[in-house]
């Protein structure tokens, strides 16, 4: 210790964690843990045994924080840990960990690193919520399969290699599953049971006989666990684990340079200190330029994120917000920073898609939902459930490979296999599944909330019927890119729907539409119809709906406004003829999307017309959606 440490002095307390004071001088600060004895251990890089230890006692207390400033003889010491009541512990504020390299392997000699500052800094983009098209992905799973054709598979660098694809797809925000340090190895409990001690899947109670037959997995692929280091990027997601900070910062910077926001999921453990949570979120924003977070508000105090001045423009997503503790009643929020994950859209959208009774009114409300004090994140699929291809290919979950005898995962998928369970080459079923996928994409990408795609859904990625791939670090949990070539029709359709949404603000208003004519232009901003204009059929047996979005309410400039659009939904198993609302003089309707036809066939039928395809009535085929666009007939006076 004498050789390595020149001087030890009382620190200033804050900031917590480790911070560099001078070239060879560092401050270590950790909150006092009641009466437990705490010792600071210092290590040379990669060494198992400490080269110095400093017992922390009352002379180093600043309030309730042990804080010491250590001056070193040289810079050979760059790792540290704490010994608390004889147990090796990591600093909860550690910015980088050593000893964690290969994903899924048990780690030994894990220490916190004394991180020197890195120059890469990227400002958040501050793209408004209503302009976003989100894309939820797993850093490792997105590029791990060889078919991804990236050099650095399963890493932050791998995501950078996929930026041209993401731009071509049209999304402008990625939502990353936990990419901070978490212990992905599932440990077996030491009490004789084969149940993992940090097991997170949704399960039903098992009998003793069933427990004996269990073969639980060893990897927590998703990363939802209490064993985390929230300030440190996951070293296993870096091509060079020792440069995880640089690689993640560079990934964020490259995304921003291409107009893509980066959102992180932060799954805080129960009873996590609220001060740590606040400092953690501020750290990722100020040091990495992260645009926003998905958080669990059952743990995180909503006021911390909604009213923190540093996070004033940072976006937050959660399953629920109590806006009454964040804002005054009826207060109009000009720049929304809160968003609610909309499971209701997923459930009602799926039920409408598969032709359940009584879903027209429910879907109508989900389609138009866009609250004033927060926004909603709409999705048809999410990680906890089927992929979009599996949603139309399986009636029941197939989770046997998870090792729980199929008892894990949600029981309620609201899916329909279109007549055959699993893969098939039957042309009629394949065509119906393609049509249902297109229908779902129209539901999602033309709705009023913020749409979020599950990575791979845009080209029919499958999990083979597994609806809870939390432990599948293999082709079940990965995105398989060969599907991209196989399902070009889905991919091209997805691109066209994203482009349509982004080019026409009528689909993404900043605030909720009122269903009223409040600018006296002759039509409400949004209106609802049945097969007859202005008469929606909301009966229990109805499966048809027409929605018109009037362009006058979406100004493009002082003198120009967006086009109007009419969307005809027919989720009945029989065709229906829709009469369309009459537009003002010289304005007519034309078909731009018909999920029953391919885009190629649709363009061919339009090209056969000498004049634009004027539509007053249209036969909408069974289980299909048609989108009509307003155009000006310049031949009419």
The first-to-last residue Cα distance is 93 Å
| Mean of all residue-level pLDDT scores | 91
Uncertain ranges: 188-203, 608-612
The computed structural class is alpha/beta
* Shape annotation: elongated
Please provide the count of β strands.
28
Give the spatial strand order of the biggest sheet: 12-13-16-17-18-19-20-21
Radius of gyration: 28 Å
**CATH level 1 name of the largest domain:** Alpha Beta
> Helix proportion of residues, in percent?
10-25%
Helical segment count: 14
Query: CATH architecture of the largest domain, please?
Result: Alpha-Beta Barrel
Quickly describe the structure.
This protein is of the alpha/beta class and 637 residues long. The protein has 14 helices and 28 strands.
What features would you describe in this structure?
It contains 14 helices and 28 strands. It is an alpha/beta fold. The chain has an 8-stranded parallel beta barrel with strand order 12-13-16-17-18-19-20-21. Strands 4, 5, 8, 9, 10 and 11 form a 6-stranded antiparallel sheet that branches. Strands 1, 2, 3, 6 and 7 form a 5-stranded antiparallel sheet that branches. The chain is elongated.
Write the layout of secondary structure elements.
Elements: E1 5-10, E2 17-22, E3 25-31, E4 38-44, E5 52-56, E6 61-62, E7 65-72, E8 77-84, E9 87-89, E10 97-98, E11 111-113, E12 134-137, H1 139-143, H2 156-161, H3 163-169, E13 173-176, E14 180-182, H4 208-213, E15 228-233, H5 244-257, E16 261-266, H6 274-288, E17 292-295, H7 302-307, E18 315-318, E19 338-342, H8 343-353, H9 360-368, E20 375-378, H10 388-391, H11 427-445, E21 450-454, H12 482-486, H13 488-503, E22 526-529, E23 544-549, E24 565-570, E25 576-579, E26 587-594, H14 599-607, E27 617-620, E28 624-632
Parallel strand pairs: 12-13, 12-21, 13-16, 16-17, 17-18, 18-19, 19-20, 20-21
Antiparallel strand pairs: 1-7, 2-3, 3-7, 4-5, 4-8, 6-7, 8-9, 8-11, 10-11, 14-15, 22-23, 23-24, 24-28, 25-27, 26-28
């Amino acid at each position: 210790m004498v050789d390595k440490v020149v001087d030890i002095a009382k620190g200033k307390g804050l900031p917590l964690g480790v911070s560099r004071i001078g070239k060879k001088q560092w401050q270590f600060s950790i909150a006092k843990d009641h009466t437990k004895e705490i010792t600071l251990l210092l290590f040379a890089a990669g060494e198992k045994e400490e080269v110095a230890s400093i017992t922390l006692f009352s002379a180093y207390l600043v309030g309730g924080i042990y804080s010491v400033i250590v001056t070193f003889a040289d810079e050979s010491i760059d790792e540290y840990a704490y010994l608390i009541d004889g147990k090796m512990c990591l600093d909860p504020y550690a910015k980088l960990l050593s000893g964690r390299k290969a994903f899924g392997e048990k780690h030994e000699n894990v220490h916190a690193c004394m991180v020197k500052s890195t120059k890469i800094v990227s400002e958040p983009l501050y793209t408004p919520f209503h302009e976003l098209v989100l894309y939820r992905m797993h850093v490792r799973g997105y590029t791990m399969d060889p078919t991804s054709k990236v050099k650095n598979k399963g890493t932050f660098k791998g995501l950078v290699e996929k930026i041209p694809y993401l731009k071509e797809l049209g999304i402008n925000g990625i939502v990353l599953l936990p990419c901070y340090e978490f212990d992905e190895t599932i440990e077996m409990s030491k009490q004789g049971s084969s149940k993992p001690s940090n097991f997170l899947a949704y399960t039903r109670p098992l009998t003793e006989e069933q427990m004996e037959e269990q073969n639980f997995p060893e990897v927590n692929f998703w990363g939802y666990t209490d064993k985390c280091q929230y300030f440190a990027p996951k070293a296993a997601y870096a091509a060079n684990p020792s440069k995880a900070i640089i690689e993640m910062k560079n990934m964020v910077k490259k995304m921003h340079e291409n107009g893509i926001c980066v959102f992180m999921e932060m799954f805080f453990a129960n009873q996590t200190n609220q001060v740590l949570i606040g400092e953690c979120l501020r750290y990722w924003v100020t040091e990495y330029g992260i645009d926003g977070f998905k958080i669990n508000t059952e743990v995180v105090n909503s006021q911390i994120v909604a009213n923190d001045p540093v996070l004033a423009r940072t976006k937050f997503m959660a399953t629920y917000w109590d806006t009454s503790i964040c804002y005054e009643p009826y207060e109009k929020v000009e720049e929304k920073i809160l968003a609610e994950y909309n499971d209701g859209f997923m459930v009602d959208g799926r039920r409408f898609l598969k032709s359940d009774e009584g879903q027209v009114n429910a879907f109508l409300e989900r389609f138009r939902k866009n609250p004033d004090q927060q926004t909603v994140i709409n999705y048809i699929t999410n990680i906890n459930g089927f992929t979009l291809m599996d949603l139309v290919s399986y009636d029941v979950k197939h989770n046997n490979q998870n090792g729980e005898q199929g008892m894990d995962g949600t029981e309620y998928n609201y899916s329909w296999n279109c007549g055959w369970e699993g893969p098939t080459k039957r042309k009629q079923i394949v065509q119906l599944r393609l049509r249902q996928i297109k229908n779902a994409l129209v539901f999602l990408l033309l709705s009023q909330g913020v749409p979020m795609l599950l990575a791979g859904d845009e080209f029919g990625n499958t999990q083979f019927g597994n609806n809870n791939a939390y432990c599948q670090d293999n082709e079940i949990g990965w995105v398989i890119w060969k599907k991209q070539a196989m399902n070009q029709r889905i991919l091209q359709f997805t691109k066209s729907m994203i482009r349509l949404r982004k080019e026409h603000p009528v689909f993404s208003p900043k605030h909720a539409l009122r269903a009223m004519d409040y600018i006296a232009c002759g039509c409400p901003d949004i209106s609802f119809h049945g097969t007859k204009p202005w008469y929606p059929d909301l009966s229990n047996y109805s499966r048809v709906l027409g929605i018109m979005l009037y362009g006058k309410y979406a100004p493009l400039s002082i003198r120009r406004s967006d086009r109007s659009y009419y969307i005809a939904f027919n989720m009945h198993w029989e065709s229906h003829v829709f009469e369309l609302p009459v537009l003002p003089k010289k304005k007519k309707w034309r078909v731009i999307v018909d999920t029953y036809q391919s885009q190629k066939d649709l363009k061919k039928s339009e090209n056969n017309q000498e004049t634009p395809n004027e539509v007053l009535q249209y036969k909408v085929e069974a289980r299909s959606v048609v989108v009509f666009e307003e155009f000006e007939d310049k031949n009419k006076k």
